[in-house]
Amino acid sequence: MKKTFLLIFLTFFSYNFLTAQQTISETKKLTSLGKVYGFLKYYHPNVATGKLDWDNEFIEILPEVLKATDKKSLSQVYINWIENLGKIENCKKCNSKEKYFDKNFDLSWTQDTTLFSNELSLKLKFVEKNRNLGESFYVTTEPAGNIKIINEPTYKDFEFPKEEYRLLGLFKYWNIIEYFYPYKYLTDQDWDLVLGEMIDKIRIVKNKEEYQAVLKELVANLDDSHAYISFNNTSKYKFLPVNISNIENQAVVSEIFNDSLAEINDLKRGDVILKINDKNIESESKNTLKYVSGSNLNFKINKAYSTIFRDTLDFMRLTIMRDGEIQNISTKLYNFNDFGYLKSKRSLKSKSITKSIGYINMASKFTLKEFEEIFETFSTKKSIIIDLRAYPELKYKMFTRYFNTTDKVFALKYNPDISYPGRFVFDKSIKTGSSRKAFKGKFILLVDNNSLSLSEFTAMAFQTADNIITIGNQTAGADGRNIAIEYLGGYTTRFSGYGIMYPDGTESQRKGVKIDVEIKPTINGLRQGRDEILEKAIEIGNQ
């Protein structure tokens, strides 16, 4: 028995000794620094309340972390750092009994015995248990429940900063997502792995262009159709007078922005684009995809096309397939405002398709009185088609009363808890309006990949109607308000700010809204000038 105990003790001692002496890679050291830096920033009472210049603390600790050679020396750097931050008082109110949405919460890394000593892990756990509960110097919440990043230096002149500031910018952004992005748990790539990968890439960039490409890739890892980053580039892009979409896995002219300009440039609906400036579209889109953020693949591909089919030049060469024949054309590019597209898109508010079917275009600007008059006109119709294939101009509450005779819950909402970063709390359930004058016939809701954010939120509200069918294809999958933060260097970036789901817990993020009848446009349908989703709606409306 004694021999067995001695053997176990020696094995345990040998493992800890070897782990403590094992050399740690620079990427692992920097990854640990990024996590410790963000954890202390939002948890440690003396840091979270702004008593220290935290950016300067990072710049000073960075060389010490890089000089550490193993677990023991690295842990000691962090232990000394924490001890120098000042005393932490015991927190009597930190044992929260709040019911949390915890799919994003993970502080298990603080107890990583392969990287941190037991003493350091205990100190990190103590910080968590006695965290800052008062106002935070770096983050606050807005009335809607989403966060607002405050008191962050912007470093506007740091468009291509030195390595230490590139790392600082990365760590700031990574931790904002780590603790306050509601859909982190839904990303394809584990957010922990993203940190290590981006550290390696951001350290070796040689110029501003390479740096900005890495930042695009970083943001793309959110898999969020709300997410993007914009730079202070002065280039003004010009565009084709048509929209290119992913139809039947090909780049196809799906919509005309301006009829006369499209005709002048010999572009027609249903044209399949094979090459752009002699470059293969398939390879160009694959190369672009990793730099665009989107909740689902179709949205990403369409977003990649919007990037590919623009330029600062005046002309673009295209190789197209039309009616089985390959043609090469040169098309002029224009300022988007030249198309008058939005005005045209919003011009039609409503119409009677047949005596029994009415149609409402939610992209139009309505006054409440106009909306009331439309429903009064359509009150005797058998069916009303509601087109949400564009961004709506009215808030859902103004017209859901025409859908329900009683208020109904259509969404659950969860917000980041800045008193326990990484955790989220459920807000009140979101309800529709109601009226005794609600329409008694059938509603048919049209959605597609252009239905984004408020379009999806509105669709969820409409779907509570007793007699409604949703027709179309996968929506953009980005629900809830998007928020803006400044990335180091004066860059602007956005992402979804709070979580939204159906009352039954089904996520609309990434998946899109629920669809009853799936209809996708076809190349032949586009060539024939048909709206296949609307056609199906009319067929169902007549049933």
- Name the shape in a single word: globular
Largest sheet: 6 strands, mixed
- The structure class reads alpha+beta
Q: Low-confidence spans: pLDDT under 50, at least 5 residues?
A: 2-15
Percentage of residues in DSSP E strands: 15-25%
Number of strands: 24
How far the N terminus sits from the C terminus, by CA atoms, comes to 82 Å
Q: Going across the major beta sheet, what is the strand order?
A: 13-14-15-19-20-24
* Global mean pLDDT: 93
Per DSSP, the total helix count is 17
Helix content: 25-40%
Mind telling me the C-alpha Rg?
27 Å
- What's the domain count? 3
Describe the structure.
This protein has 17 helices and 24 strands. It is globular, with a radius of gyration of 27 Å. 36% of the residues lie in helices and 19% in strands. The N and C termini lie far apart (82 Å). The protein has 3 domains: 2-229, no CATH class; 238-334, Pdz3 Domain (Roll); 349-541, Alpha-Beta Complex (2-enoyl-CoA Hydratase, Chain A, domain 1), CATH 3.90.226.10. It is an alpha+beta fold and 543 residues long.
